[in-house]
């Protein structure tokens, strides 16, 4: 170090004096720096800064070209000033040369120091570099440069010291002044100030670039819209982020091949479902996340270290007067620098969190597309949606605080070190208290974890059940089962709330320890300090420096357990993510046959008994294969096995070429009809028209309001069953694949349409005649045209051969045919049957509703009032009072401490210290009690509110009419029940606690500062106004961004739900890539609204902390000014409160905006109160005779209904009288209004004209449940709910087991159910997927048999079953409902041949 100083001296002077003289700089009333230090260090620092940064900055600009900025006045000014600075520096250099030549010629006697040449030369070259850099920035499109701003700032600060020094020198030693050098320096200093000002201004945007928008200012002027948001940075987009995670997660594995890409000729390949025999190590989600996001995240750790060290730089205020001001300035600079570093740290953390969420959602989506059926059972739709919504959010939140794991211990160690310096060994007493607190907090964290797991389990179950209720809402309404399911959801909800309540008590204990820990530490330390030695006096410096350090300690000590519990929670999530992650993907192989199975044995789950046994089939190219068999014989399973959807236990399977699949239940996307058919392929108009014509869709296109551009609602709500099936078929045909797997596509269409489709599409003369077709069918008339027929019984192929071969063999198949063939002699002229008026309902604005714009107003006070009412007004007031008493006690205890430190010292001790200590302790105890009580009251209030809000939302949603569900995407509703409910459950109560806490903190701090230094009253109002404006500015934009973000979140889940339902279709068509792109696009669209909110938070924090730092500076400044009149105790109190004020202010705004943005959840949950509702479920005074309807007479008079106000009637002017016990068939073309008539009978849609009377009672006068529970329907789509089979038959538990078994026997399910291990308690999976479609249809028949009402409606109830089962059902209906009125909508005419009319 000495050598360096000597070198400096040599450069400055020929005879070396010291370069820095401390007597001149520090220990003096008017400090100054030596001439040598000014001419070397202060000149070289800015130069070094620029030369170090320039190469790195140059490379950065080279790789980040934003375009070209035209020359502007600003740029010209910057360049001109730069050249002038260069000229001034060179003038100094030339002057030095001139002086030297004068010396050499003997004209001057003074010797020249080398520094007079070296420094100006160096400065001149630096100024030239700065000018060139400014031009290079312009060429690369930089509008404002941080590097150059910092350079000019450092240069001005260094020059300011010299400037002051030169003025002092001119006043004190006028003879030593060199006029030329002084003149050039003042010009140089003026130009520097101009440069600093110019670099603070922003240039115009580059050519051809979008003008950058300031979201905060825009958001204040008017509500933000989607177009105001910035594009997402490329490194934050899904296509960059997700592959990084997948690469680390699955790097050892090969990706599955054989997926068809658009425009690529399809290679011959076959799907071979196989599991690799070697056991690979399971990919760890945790390590993958660490490796992917670790490197970027480490940057944040660096910022955190700097911030932690800075935190301890702000303590000392006893020195000469100018040093008081110097320390005040240093305090201000340190706090401002700390602010910038901390905000940069948070920015890095939040961006990492955002990428993490993108990666998790993307990875889960990709996994859901390849997940096997066994895995689908362990992880339900509810769990997966939860992992995507709530849990990915938890990951994001944790990232911000995870650095506390090492930062907290570091802060604690530093604070303890300074405390030891201050109070000596007494600190150990405080440490002991802290150490005791850690296990308490640890126990609380572990307990909280167990509660969280329990709550997550309940929540998953609740979301899963809600998902099913929303998917099967039509069935619930038809059967009047809403209340049973409302009770089921409420029961799960109650168990969830019980857990929440326990967690609330724990939370209160943890808040109690969090607030009391620092106080107990301070109390124990001060007690030991004053008790161990009489002469230990507690003065202001000791007390308040210690208090400031204890306050610093409070944060890490409380964050640590919270972070640990969050990590534990995320550990739980990683395990559930890991579970979803373990599933088998499909891989491929080759064969000469189009389809071949050798000795195949398949089951739906590895551990289940095989569903398909001993299968051996070889199908040559271009054949038409029909698969027939009874319900549940394994026909659909055979197709699933070919698609690779089942677990292969033995044998091999291969399918050559691309595959198209038409499932039994059509899967329709929420898109236009055209998009549903084209399904991501390239558009070929002529082929498209040919396909539409072949699939009998032309008549439907004429009816639809926008033709094939009509928007189809979610799950195809605005298409009839037959239309959905034909669209599904058209999609497959358009795809033009090698192999077609058709799972009974003709069941939902009427006979002549079925015939048309078979001839034009599937049959020997159809569009697909050269393709391999596997057709599962119950239609016997098509069998003679098949090349090969496979007869299936109980999962085995019992007979195979052509139609003629099988007939000649005279086996079971021939017997079956003889029984039923004559019944299938349909009338070809069935087209002459009198059709109902042909109309179709549509909800073309389904999609426009999905992306509803958010409400564009601020949160009304009424929303807060609603929430207060939900809590209970009395409880709310009690909570506020408890908050007040806690903060009052806290303030008073610190004031008491300041009085104690001002006690006079008598003979080296303070006389009344026991009394002081006792009161101090008592105040602390009262604080603790108040904290515990308010924590309990707020949490319990929150639980009461969330119970009330959830119950009313559930009731309101169930009371909504069917049209509401057709218009509202299920993603929106699921979002309300998952994310918004979670917000009300756990986020709002904690925000309210923090909001109240910071509000009282801010008020308290201001009061204390005002009492101590009344001069601050001049500063607080203007700063308060600035603070208020910043806060309003921010909240306006922040709230709007939050709304945009939550509105763009629903489509992510809606699309995800849709994908899960159609996963097998997407896989079969090889369209995974396109769906992944769509999902990524939606996630990016969502993050596009989230990213600006991160930036807005940083924008706010920097400005607010600046306001806080100003208050600290002024408090310190006025304290220094009034140091003679102030008592040290009050002064210490004032500054220790001022130091806390910054954090409290920032926190207050953050919490007030969080409260506004999160209370939106209450508003969104309440908005279903105002939507339209159905008629009452029951009337108080029911005038119905008991046992109504007794005869079953139906009298329809001039009946008409429409689906929406603005549409024409779907059914009009229908008048018909049906007598009790009549059997009536209703036929008509698809979309003719057959189902609409039944919807009118059940009042799913209310009549517009006319009325319906049953046994003389006008049904419009009845309560809906009174009507719907007395008549029965077997619907077109058989819907089952997850739960026991018994619950599916009788959710109200109104029938005995004998009655249930009797109903099962009559519906031909008894043998199947008694063969199940759990019999009636057999668990049905989500949507009843572990039963075949036919079996589900029979379960619906069993429901009808149980209820046994006088009127029975069959809505194409037997479309999905084979003829034999159809026959059994019909005979059951004839015998069991002999005296009942039966209305049947049918496509198969043999079903209604023997009906009355």
From TrEMBL:
**What reaction does this enzyme carry out catalytically?**
sphing-4-enine 1-phosphate(in) + ATP + H2O = sphing-4-enine 1-phosphate(out) + ADP + phosphate + H(+); 17beta-estradiol 17-O-(beta-D-glucuronate)(in) + ATP + H2O = 17beta-estradiol 17-O-(beta-D-glucuronate)(out) + ADP + phosphate + H(+); leukotriene C4(in) + ATP + H2O = leukotriene C4(out) + ADP + phosphate + H(+); 2',3'-cGAMP(in) + ATP + H2O = 2',3'-cGAMP(out) + ADP + phosphate + H(+)
Organism superkingdom: Eukaryota
- Where does the chain cross the membrane? 41-60, 80-97, 117-134, 146-165, 185-202, 284-306, 326-346, 398-420, 426-446, 503-532, 552-574, 870-897, 917-945, 1002-1030, 1100-1122
Q: What is its EC number?
A: 7.6.2.2, 7.6.2.3
A cellular component term, taken from the record's GO annotations: basolateral plasma membrane
Q: Where in the cell is it found?
A: Cell membrane
SUPFAM superfamilies noted in UniProt: ABC transporter transmembrane region, P-loop containing nucleoside triphosphate hydrolases
Q: Where is the ABC transporter domain?
A: 595-819, 1196-1397
Any GO BP annotation: lipid transport
Extract the Pfam families matched here.
Answer: ABC_membrane, ABC_tran, TMD0_ABC
Q: What class of enzyme is it?
A: translocase
Q: Which InterPro entries match?
A: AAA+_ATPase, ABC1_TM_dom, ABC1_TM_sf, ABC_transporter-like_ATP-bd, ABC_transporter-like_CS, ABC_transporter_C-like, P-loop_NTPase, TMD0_ABC
Please name the GO terms that the record assigns under molecular function. ABC-type glutathione S-conjugate transporter activity; ABC-type xenobiotic transporter activity; ATP binding; ATP hydrolysis activity; glutathione transmembrane transporter activity
Q: Where is the ABC transmembrane type-1 domain?
A: 284-569, 878-1157
What PROSITE patterns does the database record attribute to this sequence? ABC_TM1F (PS50929), ABC_TRANSPORTER_1 (PS00211), ABC_TRANSPORTER_2 (PS50893)
Membrane topology per record: Multi-pass membrane protein
Keywords for this entry? ATP-binding, Cell membrane, Lipid transport, Membrane, Nucleotide-binding, Repeat, Translocase, Transmembrane, Transmembrane helix, Transport
The family note in this entry says: Belongs to the ABC transporter superfamily. ABCC family. Conjugate transporter (TC 3.A.1.208) subfamily.
Give the PANTHER family listed for this entry. ATP-BINDING CASSETTE SUB-FAMILY C, MULTIDRUG RESISTANCE-ASSOCIATED PROTEIN 1
Protein name, as recorded: Multidrug resistance-associated protein 1
Source organism per entry reads: Oncorhynchus mykiss (Rainbow trout)
| Top-level taxonomy | Eukaryota, Metazoa, Chordata, Craniata, Vertebrata
